[in-house]
Amino acid sequence: MKHIGKQEALTKINSSNGRVFGVVFEKADGTMRKMSGRIDVTKHLKGGVATYKGKDGSKQNVGLYEMAGTKSGYKCFSLDRLKEIHIDHEEYVVEG
Predict the structure, then answer these.
(1) pLDDT tens profile 46-90
(2) pTM, full prediction
(3) Nearest to 53, CA basis, from 24, 79, 25, 14
(4) Closest CA to 17 of 44, 42, 38
(5) For residue 93, what are the β-bridge partners?
(6) What b/e sequence results for 45-84 when a residue is b if at least 16 CB atoms lie within 10 Å of its CB, and e otherwise?
(7) How many CA atoms lie within 13 A of 19 on its CB side?
(8) What is the mean predicted confidence (pLDDT) over 22-34?
(9) CA–CA gap between residue 96 and residue 89 (Å, rounded)
(10) Angstrom distance (rounded) from CA 42 to CA 20
(11) Which of these, 19, 15, 79, 75, lies nearest to 50 by C-alpha position?
């Protein structure tokens, strides 16, 4: 696996162009979580303002649509807690 920084991981996610990617991150309770999904999905939105970045936009959260059966839906993860990213048939360990 290649090692990349958090900002490079965010760039790879933002340039995924709707393709499915996977992430591994640490949840707030300390457990590890795997998710696979896509960004820029708008099919199930009901309107309103997204709050996952905080009211003032200061949180470094990434929103995605998780595509895992009964768990499917809009989710987010903290860029600060990101450990791995799987995108374009490549696996990366996120450091920093």
Answers:
(1) 776 666 565 565 568 888 989 887 888 888 899 999 999 999 999
(2) 0.83
(3) 79
(4) 38
(5) 3, 84
(6) eeeeeeeeeeeeeeebbbbbbbeeeeeeeebbbebebbbb
(7) 11
(8) 95
(9) 23
(10) 15
(11) 75
| All structural domains of the chain with their residue ranges | 2-39+61-95
C-beta of residue 79 within 8 angstroms of C-beta of residue 9 = yes
Backbone angles phi, psi at 19, to 5 degrees: -75, 150
pLDDT band per the 50, 70, 90 thresholds, residue 7: very high
Strand segments, DSSP code E, in the chain are 2-5, 21-26, 32-38, 61-66, 73-78, 82-87, 90-95
Task: Give long-range contacts, CB 8 A cutoff, 24+ apart: 76-81.
Answer: 76/52, 77/23, 77/25, 77/33, 77/35, 78/25, 79/6, 79/9, 79/10, 80/6, 81/25, 81/26, 81/27
